[in-house]
Design goal:
By secondary structure, this protein is an alpha+beta fold. The chain has two domains: 51-257, no CATH class; 270-416, no CATH class. It has nine helices and twelve strands. It has helices at residues 51-61, 71-81, 161-164, 257-286, 294-311, 328-335, 368-371, 375-388, 403-416, and strands at 11-13, 16-18, 90-92, 109-113, 117-121, 127-133, 137-143, 155-156, 179-182, 188-192, 225-230, 233-238. The strands form four sheets. A six-stranded antiparallel β-sheet has the order 3-4-5-6-7-8, with helices on both faces. The chain has a two-stranded antiparallel sheet with strand order 1-2. β4 (109-113) and β5 (117-121) form a beta hairpin. α4 (257-286) packs antiparallel against α5. It is globular, with a radius of gyration of 22 Å. Mean pLDDT is 89; it is low at 1-15 and 17-27.
């Protein structure tokens, strides 16, 4: 059911509660909901439950086995200890990091990721970590690579928040992806798609400042280019991956387009879910555990609609006519933990011909980030998701999904999710 709008009785509609007695007047929707110091969030003081924090003690004590024979060996062993696939490697040569003085086309920054952990490394520099706490989002760490055998000492970074909790991440501690035209030394000359992340961004606006391998079918994009400004006019020159650096510096000789597509999808998902979760927690705190403000309820309704559209890839960018090959090694690593139903189908099954996935519902619905949303709000999302996947009630917004695909997604979710509302 959709949210009710009637005032005068207690309505429980779409799992969001509107209470008439003492019903609060409408108030402007300010950014108080995103205040990290708010008691609803207490970002800097609350106990952390992200995956890196859980292994941090083992890392600091030396209980996690690391290879100190070289930077490359160190990073490879650290990725293994953190269960991040080395095949997820992406190389960035724009100076869009705390370690910008070390980054250039001759010394790209490497990024690696799993579903809830992100690791950055600049050769000759430090290790950067973004670890997603299920409720408050990105926890940011940085530490030196000590090749003398001493365990690392991860420091929780506050400087990262300058970029990781602003308009680029929807005001919450999230994931930043920028597409820029770097100059010959890596500095930014132009930028695209600021303040937005996700699978809806056209390929023609992506990858600026990134090396992209396996992009033969992509068509126009901003990857593998450097620029120059001459009297205000921007010109670009191709920068072939590996032409100015040695692939041997890095664990694998790829910066494949497939992990970049998955990374973009995950970043857009994380930032949207975190915004919704921050709003829901703040609004519930303001209402003493109930949703009692009309503006808050309407905002959460909008957030739920946005998340359902994103979960179902409603606005996914158009794929190239010939599809995308994708690195088979990364594809195998990505799907190793797929949740299959009794027919062998999973939400991680790749398509790559005309879209990313065979069954267009994000596998991140299983993530701790989504599952930790306040139950009253998450149940409303489930109900709206059920409506969208019903051939009779899905409406024009989800007509791009065939009835067969809707049925398949519903069957997969029913068998692989344990907290769907009764009768879903």
């Amino acid at each position: 059911m959709r949210l009710g709008r009637k005032i005068g009785a207690i309505w429980l509609t779409g799992a969001l509660l509107l209470s008439a007695p003492g019903f609060a007047a409408e108030v402007p929707d300010e950014l108080d909901w995103a205040d990290l110091k708010s008691p609803a969030h207490d970002y800097w003081n609350r106990p952390l439950h992200d995956r890196f924090t859980r292994i941090k003690g083992d890392l600091e004590s030396g209980r996690l086995p690391l290879d100190f024979s070289s930077e490359k060996a160190y990073v490879t062993s650290l990725l293994k200890a953190m269960e991040i696939p080395v095949t997820s490697q992406m190389l960035v040569f724009s100076t869009t990091s705390l370690q910008l003085r070390l980054i250039s086309p001759r010394n790209p920054r490497a990024l690696y990721f799993s579903e809830d952990l992100y690791l950055g490394w600049v050769p000759g520099g430090k290790i950067e970590i973004v670890s997603m706490d299920p409720e408050i989002g990105g926890i940011y760490y940085i530490f030196d690579i000590n090749l003398d055998g001493k365990p690392p000492v991860p420091e929780r970074s506050t400087r990262c928040m300058n970029c990781h909790s602003d308009d680029d991440t929807r005001q919450v501690p999230g994931i930043v992806i920028r597409s820029v035209v770097p100059g010959p030394t890596g500095g930014t000359l132009d930028s695209f798609r600021r303040e937005d992340t996700g699978h809806q961004i056209p390929f023609s606006d992506r990858f600026g400042g990134w090396h992209v391998t396996g992009d033969e079918t992509l068509g126009k994009h901003w990857g593998n280019l450097v620029g120059r400004l001459n009297q205000g006019e921007l010109s670009t020159t191709p920068l072939e991956p590996g032409s100015r650096f040695n692939w041997e510096t890095y664990p694998v000789p790829t910066s494949d387009v497939l992990p970049q597509l998955i990374h973009e999808h995950q970043a857009g998902f994380a930032n949207r879910v975190l915004e919704a979760g921050y709003r829901a927690r703040y609004y519930l705190k303001e209402g003493g555990g109930r949703l009692t403000n009309r503006v808050h309820i309407e905002k959460l309704r909008e957030q739920a609609e946005m998340l359902v559209r994103y979960l179902l890839f409603a606005d996914e960018a158009e794929f190239p006519r010939d599809g995308i090959p994708g690195d088979p090694a990364y594809a195998a690593d990505f799907t190793h933990n797929r949740r299959a139903d009794s027919k062998g189908r999973s939400l991680k099954d790749l398509n790559l011909k005309d879209r990313m996935f065979q069954y267009r519902c994000s596998y991140l619905i299983y993530s701790d980030l989504f599952q930790s949303l306040p139950p009253v709000f998450k149940n409303h999302i489930y109900n709206r998701l059920g409506e969208a996947l019903d051939p009779k009630t899905g409406g024009a917004d989800f007509a791009y999904l065939s009835n067969a695909e809707k049925t398949a997604i519903r069957e997969i979710l029913r068998e692989t999710l344990t907290d769907l509302p009764e009768g879903w």
